[in-house]
Each structure stands twice: as structure tokens, then as C-alpha cells.
Design goal:
single chain, 211 residues, alpha+beta, tt1808, chain A, 2 domains, 4-stranded mixed beta sheet, 14 strands, elongated
């Protein structure tokens, strides 16, 4: 994806640059903030200083480093992006979404936080808007696959304990379903109000009746 399309997709209104070609110089930003800048260098001595594309809004920074093909020399590309993440954290204290993006195709790699296996988001295979990246930290994005997996686990649990209703006196009545609302997916268990109260849970542990 070309740079113009990357900027357009994430949101030009959130683009922050301080040198030509819409790039961002960390030495310049540190100088303007009266902070000392110590460049991070790779094993060959190259100093990483200029990020390709930087976005910021609501204490969230999205850092994009572009390559023709980051799969070639991936470790070097990750090392470079990691340096920019460290600069950004020290400069702003913002929460960070870090992205490697190819300019010859639409391949991307996304991390929520630092460049580590734990923060890598393998299911993020396309660029999002700045608002959606902000949602990574405000818990508004719903992981539909996770919801589905948890629903399947619940179904399996209920099937394994198909007589669970027998533990309650009087018997409880419930329904389970998945509900889509405003592009989000929710797993729902609804328990109907008991016609007879109170409802007690009765089960045996060994020879003892527990309530």
C-alpha cells in the first residue's frame, strides 16, 4: 500500500509530522521538548531516528514504518520499529500501536504496545482507522472469535452437565444466544424470573447434601 493510502486509511487529520515527506524526526521532537536524545543503534551502528508515518490522538500513538517487503529482513525491521516505540514512550507516554506496512502489497504486522510476541496481533491483517486503533485500548472492539470460542465452551459445559437444572429447586429456566449489535457480538445467558421463590441449589458432595 502506498504512503498516501496508508495516511488516508488511518486518518490524515491525525497525522503528526515535523519534517518533509510527512515523516517524523525524533531528534527534532526531543529537542523541541528540551529532552536529551540518545539514538538507538543496530549491530551495524546505524542509528534509528526518523519514523515514516506517525499518528496521534487521545493519548494514543500509531507508528507506521514502511518497507517494500518487511518479510525480507524482518528482524531488522522489527528492531527499527522497536526503537521508535521506545522513543515515543519516552517522548509522550502515550499508549502505542506499532505497524510494519509493505508498500508493494497490503501486508501489515501490528503490535499493541511493544514489539514482542506477547503484543503481536496476528489477526490484524489490514489497516484500520485511527478511531479503531484507539478502541484497542478502550475495550470497544469486540473479539468476535473469542466470543464464539467462549460460547462453544459454555455449550460444551452445559451439555456435559445436562442435568444441571436438577440441582435447583424449583428448576430454573434459561436461554443462551449470540447477539449482534452495532457491529459487536455479545454472548448472552438470560435467566427467567422464577415463578416460585426462593430458588436453592442442592447437590451432593460424597454422602453430604449441600445447599
Amino acid at each position: 500500500m502506498i504512503r498516501a493510502d496508508i495516511i488516508s486509511t488511518i486518518g490524515r487529520e491525525c497525522l503528526v509530522n515535523n519534517i518533509e515527506n510527512d515523516e517524523f524526526s525524533y531528534p527534532k521532537a526531543y529537542s523541541q521538548a528540551s529532552l536529551p536524545f540518545t539514538p538507538i543503534r543496530n549491530s551495524a551502528g546505524r542509528a534509528f531516528e526518523k519514523l515514516d508515518i506517525r499518528f496521534a490522538k487521545d493519548n494514543i500513538s500509531v507508528l507506521v514504518e514502511t518497507k517494500q517487503n518487511f518479510h525480507t529482513g524482518l528482524d531488522d525491521a522489527k528492531e527499527q520499529l522497536s526503537a521508535y516505540v521506545e522513543y515515543e514512550k519516552a517522548l509522550t507516554g502515550n499508549k502505542i500501536v506499532a505497524i510494519l506496512a509493505n508498500t508493494t502489497n497490503d501486508d501489515v504486522m501490528v503490535w499493541r504496545g511493544v514489539i514482542s510476541d506477547g503484543d503481536f496481533m496476528p489477526k490484524e491483517t489490514a489497516l484500520r482507522t485511527m478511531g479503531e486503533y484507539i478502541d484497542f485500548y478502550t475495550s470497544k472492539i469486540n473479539d468476535k472469535e473469542k466470543v464464539m470460542q467462549n460460547t462453544y465452551k459454555l455449550n460444551e459445559l452445559l451439555h456435559r452437565h445436562s442435568n444441571i437444572r436438577e440441582y435447583f429447586s424449583p428448576e430454573i429456566v434459561w436461554e443462551k444466544t449470540i447477539y449482534d449489535f452495532e457491529e459487536k457480538r455479545y454472548g448472552i445467558i438470560y435467566t427467567y424470573s422464577a415463578t416460585e421463590k426462593p430458588v436453592t441449589l442442592n447437590y451432593k458432595r460424597g454422602n453430604r447434601l449441600c445447599r
